[in-house]
Design brief:
The protein is of the alpha/beta class. The protein has a domain at about 5-170: Metallo-beta-lactamase, Chain A (4-Layer Sandwich). Helices cover about 20% and strands about 25% of the residues. The protein has 7 helices and 18 strands. Strand 4, helix 1 (about 45-50) and strand 5 (about 55-60) form a beta-alpha-beta unit. Helix 6 (about 190-200) packs antiparallel against helix 7. The longest helix is centred in the C-terminal third of the chain and has 14 residues, at about 225-235. It is globular, with a radius of gyration of 18 Å. The two termini are about 30 Å apart.
Length: about 300
């Protein structure tokens, strides 16, 4: 039993791994497994995963934030979109002090953590071998299990989601949910985010639900439509624009007033925190790559 992690099966070949309220996913094929996100780099996720599967494990990161990427330190390599490599290596993500404080602040009172984490629980910083992923790349895990990469810049410029047609779902990280933060260093503008969601929507006929980086339940694919409509409201100045501060201390505006279960009072399953000086498109260098079949 782990002090830091819990797990549950959500499909025959998929295990949801939780660290407090943040989560990743272990998808197994017949030849290898894919670990989608690696949580905070506190406690031995690698050891926990080894108890779940004997297959070789490939790691892919949906985006380079402190609650999704640092566990890759223990695995030594990962796939990540190039636009998020610098973010992943920044002190906001990899600093041991930052990770320790984040875990104890955000999750220290949850049932998963019976006591506070200490510095000896934090995985040491080291270089990670990074491999690029781009739109259309496919992780072939064997036995017909193939996981496809979709680029959805917004929460960060390098945000990706992973399409699993076998299970009719997408593993969406923080790309689109009830607390989508588009007000952080490395976030896009709202205008760019809307374009990303319109692109994401073109895949909607290939899945029904999304499993995000914070749970514990899936959300319907109509969350994408809610996000698009909300971007329009923000750009038109017709949202609730409630002043707020995120858990990381970033100020912003909450687009819709929250009701029960953190959901918007107005309905739907998407909400956005944004900055008013990050509404319209800004220049950003594009990094292109050819799709690969990754085995």
């Amino acid at each position: 039993m782990s002090k830091f992690f819990t797990s549950k099966k959500i499909y025959d070949n998929v295990t949801l791994i939780s660290c407090g309220t943040v989560q990743g996913f272990l998808v197994e094929g017949t030849e290898r497994a894919l670990l989608i996100d690696t949580l905070c780099g506190v406690g031995s996720l690698k050891g926990f995963v080894r108890e779940l599967t004997d297959l070789p494990v490939t790691v892919v990161i949906t985006h380079g934030h402190v609650d999704h990427a640092p566990g890759a330190l223990e695995f030594g390599s990962c796939f990540i979109h190039p636009d998020d490599i610098a973010l992943m290596y920044s002190d906001r993500c990899f600093s041991k002090e930052r990770r320790l404080n984040f875990v104890n602040m955000a999750y220290g009172k949850s049932e998963t953590f019976p006591s506070q984490a200490v510095m000896s629980d934090v995985i040491d910083v080291q270089a990670i071998r990074t491999y690029p992923v781009y739109e259309g790349d496919v992780f072939d895990l064997g036995g017909g299990v193939k996981i496809e990469v979709i680029e959805v810049p917004g929460h960060t410029y390098g945000t990706i989601v992973l399409l699993d047609e076998k299970n009719n779902c997408v593993y969406s990280g923080d790309a689109c949910n009830v607390n989508t933060l588009i007000n952080l260093p490395g976030s896009t503008t709202i205008e760019e985010y809307k374009e990303s969601l319109l692109h994401f929507k073109t895949y909607q006929d290939r899945f029904d639900v999304m499993w995000g980086g914070h749970g514990p339940a899936s959300v319907p694919k109509t969350t994408i439509d809610d996000g698009i409509a909300l971007c329009d409201k923000i750009l038109a100045g017709e949202d609730d624009a409630i002043e707020t501060v995120t858990t990381s201390g970033a100020p912003g505006y909450l687009a819709l007033e929250r009701g029960d279960s953190f959901l918007p009072k107005a309905g739907g399953t998407c909400n956005i925190v944004y900055s008013k000086d990050m509404l319209r498109r800004r220049p950003h260098p594009e990094i292109k790559g050819e799709p690969n079949l990754i085995r």
